[in-house]
Amino acid sequence: MHTSSGRSRRLVAYTAVTALAASLLAACSSDDEGSAGGDGKITLNVGTFGVLGLKQAGLYEEYEKAHPNIRIKENVIERNDAYYPKLLTQLQSGAGVNDVAAVEVSNITEVVQTQGAKFEDLGKAEGVQKSAYLDWKWKQATTEDGKTIGLGVDIGPTALCYRKDLFAKAGLPTDREELAKEWAGDWDKYVAMGEKYMEKAPKGTKFVDSASSVYNAVFAGATERYYDKDGEEIYEQSQGRKDAWDAAMKVARGDMSAKLKQFDPTWDQGFANGKFATVACPAWMAGYIQEKTGPGGKGKWDMAKAPTDGNWGGTFLGVPSAGKHKKEATELAVWLTRPEQLAKVFAKQASFPSTPAVYDKLKPSPATKAYFSDAPITRIYAGIAENTPSAVYGVKDAQIGQSITDIGVLQVEQQGKSPEEGWEAAQKEIKDVLGQ
Description:
The chain is an alpha/beta fold. The chain folds into 2 domains: 9-154 and 313-353, 3-Layer(aba) Sandwich (D-Maltodextrin-Binding Protein, domain 2); 156-312 and 369-433, D-Maltodextrin-Binding Protein, domain 2 (3-Layer(aba) Sandwich), CATH 3.40.190. Helices cover 47% and strands 13% of the residues. The chain has 18 helices and 9 strands. It has helices spanning 9-34, 59-66, 80-93, 105-115, 135-140, 164-169, 176-183, 187-199, 211-219, 239-252, 265-272, 283-293, 326-336, 339-349, 366-371, 377-387, 397-415, 419-433, and strands spanning 42-49, 70-77, 100-104, 151-163, 206-208, 276-282, 301-304, 311-318, 352-353. Strands 1, 2, 3, 4, 5, 6, 7, 8 and 9 form a 9-stranded mixed β-sheet that branches. α9 runs antiparallel to α10, α9 runs antiparallel to α17 and α10 (239-252) runs parallel beside α17. The longest helix is centred in the N-terminal third of the chain and has 26 residues, at 9-34. It is globular, with a radius of gyration of 21 Å. The two termini are 27 Å apart. The model is unreliable at 1-34 (pLDDT under 50).
């Protein structure tokens, strides 16, 4: 999941030293926990970020029942911008690695190109069928010499989730089909609806959580991103980036945003307190909304197609070669990413599987359907997934994107700087990240 903050060189160095120290301490803990204890069980540590859904869907418990010698411990870090540097430090030092490690799609190219030798080849693991996964998803985690370092968990077809109770109070349509039709094909129409919402907005609420949310949603449908097919950086002239930036600036400069930083505690509180009416909603976000809004949000949230189809986020599971239990970890990673298991995650969390064989069988849980006002969740996300254009990811894709959203967009939105000043700050951060 799915955003992370940019860093200056000094902060990177400090973070690396801190993370290394932490990882060495974690190594001792991990070594103890990863060994067979007095009960003879092996503890397998699974490193994840955000709400991946494997635990929530009961997969760990199910696996432990079928494998009495295995104990699974999930080590969760809320934000990927904190999780990913720690993962890199662990891989580079070989200390404190989780037995199974999640990798976000915006980081996968860098991991494949720079850390591929430090992962097991899951393409050769027993029981793995390449044909079960989306072809483009499989290729994203495969090195030039054919080594597959990660198996796909989910993808992120992106819809819009909205509070229909707040829409009704603001005098706006609440029917998902009507809304999708009203803003179809044009993010400016979505922004225009935000302006209408604010005319009669319920007290203390805004139309959207953040301008960064809009940036990510628009950018999700871009065919031209931050790199070209030859791996060259094109973020300055990228039309996809320009379109997303322009849409985000209209929101940031208006009065329709709650001005929250995504994945921060204040953002979580915004869900719980009903502070905003819409949020960009990749499939993995549905589970996040349920968890952060809580029982009080049941039946208040709904879901509609966004103006354009796109994919935001998605995850892989890999097995670091420095782990103490590679055989058992490989078996677990393979089992967790089988189509039938990913269908269970969708049923619980609505995270959309990377295995198309189960698409016609997917059924969200009754609780999830009720939470989102009986929206046709499967149909909405499947349709988006089928129409999402293919895109090229680069080595520093995540860092560039996060420099734009967490530096550039936020400076405009929260500090009142001009779009030109915000973009200049984002560019400076990007060049710092890229060592230019």
